[in-house]
Design a protein that fits this description.
Elements (H helix, E strand, L loop, with lengths): L1 H16 L6 H12 L3 E8 L4 E8 L3 H9 L8 H6 L14 H4 L3 H7 L4 E11 L3 E10 L7 H24 L9 H4 L6 E5 L5 E4 L1 H8 L5 E3 L2 E3 L3 H16 L11 E4 L5 E8 L6 H7 L3 E7 L7 H9 L3 H13 L2 H8 L3 H15 L4 H12 L5
Antiparallel strand pairs: 1-2, 1-4, 3-4, 5-6, 5-11, 7-8, 9-10, 10-11
Length: 377
């Protein structure tokens, strides 16, 4: 019972952090302990430029964090694999490359090993054409490599981290008193509705009312929030009922519910439960079980690296070597930059020539350029 209560409290804190970003540091400390590691981070990475940005972190030395984004993000052999991992799927070093190769990289020798770090379990929270938002829990030597238990715990917590992060991004609040939650949301761009467990609307902000008036992705029938698709309605009502029971019952439900307007515009909805934590005051005030945020969906355009990887069935490491060859030059220079053996680079290069069907460095450059610029044939 104690473990169940601790888990429920953690989830409640995660959702409260979606309204108050100052809570994320404590949440990361709790999630690190839950998954099994000394540190956790929320970061974004760009797979093309191989740069990154820190959102929140707990447990790492600030100097090492700074050096990562200044230098080692470009040497991190996990970045390409992380970018193309399935959203919500826990992945570790062994999913991207043999561990014995990992420990020979400059990244491990110069950045991870001095901190006593041996592995990390990560999960993609959101992905655009060029970047990905990631949640990571690091493993120390005393924790050992990422095992099945860590992956299982990561799967339990990631849906809640993902929902909270997406909602926090959608409402874009620096801080908000949960007691005045609904009152502060009338100025946000996303449509916001507070609903009870049956889907009846008890409050909506100005963009939400406009959505209802324009018969867009959502409308009201008998006071209930409905879509133009009965199956989506059933999905939403199931989510609202689960939210009324408690945070942990939601799981992966309601993280990103796709909606289609009558004019063909695509929207996405995120559902936040209001029955636990500091959010309970708002839920009680409006007799609401959940808040639903709706905004227009961005176009899902694959990035050039993703398109290349799919077209030629490249592994993450092969893609990483390909991009480095194009950007940096020959095998010796790539080996130095990536912190791997030159023979390893040449092995991957041979596989690239075979898979892509070319025989020269210049042909690889032309292929990558063609994917990057549709005007190049």
């Amino acid at each position: 019972m104690s473990d169940l209560e601790d888990f429920s409290s953690l989830i409640s804190n995660i959702y409260d952090a979606s309204l108050d970003p100052a809570l994320w540091i404590d949440v990361l400390a709790q999630t690190a302990r839950f998954v099994g590691g000394p540190a956790a981070s929320l970061v974004s990475k760009d797979a093309t430029s191989r740069t990154g940005q820190l959102a929140f972190q707990f447990g790492l030395d600030p100097e090492y964090v700074q050096s990562y984004f200044d230098k080692y993000v470009r040497l991190d052999p996990n970045t390409t694999g992380q970018f193309f991992a399935k959203i919500g799927q826990p992945v570790a070093v062994a999913d991207f490359m043999p561990y014995e190769d990992f420990v020979e990289t400059r990244f491990f020798k110069e950045w991870a090993r001095p901190q006593g770090l041996v592995d990390a379990v990560s999960s993609v929270l959101e992905r655009s054409a060029t970047s990905a938002a990631l949640f990571l829990v690091f493993r120390h030597t005393k924790d050992g490599l990422v095992d099945d238990g860590a992956r299982r715990r990561m799967r339990l917590i990631v849906p809640h981290i993902r929902r909270a992060a997406l909602i926090g991004k959608t409402i874009d609040l620096k801080t908000a008193e949960s007691a005045a939650f609904a009152d502060t949301l009338d100025g946000i761009a996303a449509g916001m509705f507070l609903v009870d467990r049956r889907g009846c609307i008890v409050h909506a902000n100005a963009p939400g009312h406009e959505m209802l008036r324009s018969s867009g992705a959502l409308h009201a029938v008998g006071g209930r929030l409905v879509t133009h698709d009965p199956s989506t309605d059933h999905q939403l009502y199931d989510i609202f009922a689960a939210a009324a029971v408690g945070d942990s019952k939601l799981g992966v439900k309601g993280i990103c519910v796709p909606l289609m307007a009558r004019n063909g515009e695509r929207h996405v909805a995120h559902v936040l439960p209001l029955t636990s934590g500091a959010r309970r005051r708002t839920g009680a005030r409006y007799a609401a079980a959940a808040a639903i945020f709706v905004h227009r969906a961005a176009l899902d355009i694959p990035s050039p690296p993703e398109a290349i990887a799919k077209a030629y069935k490249l592994t993450p490491m092969e893609l990483r070597v390909l991009l480095a060859i194009v950007e940096i030059g020959g095998a010796p220079e790539v080996a130095e930059a990536l912190g791997i053996a030159e023979t390893t680079v040449k092995t991957h290069l041979g596989r690239l020539y075979e898979k892509i069907g070319v025989a020269r460095h210049a042909d690889l450059v032309k292929i990558v350029a063609g994917f990057s610029n549709p005007l190049i044939g």
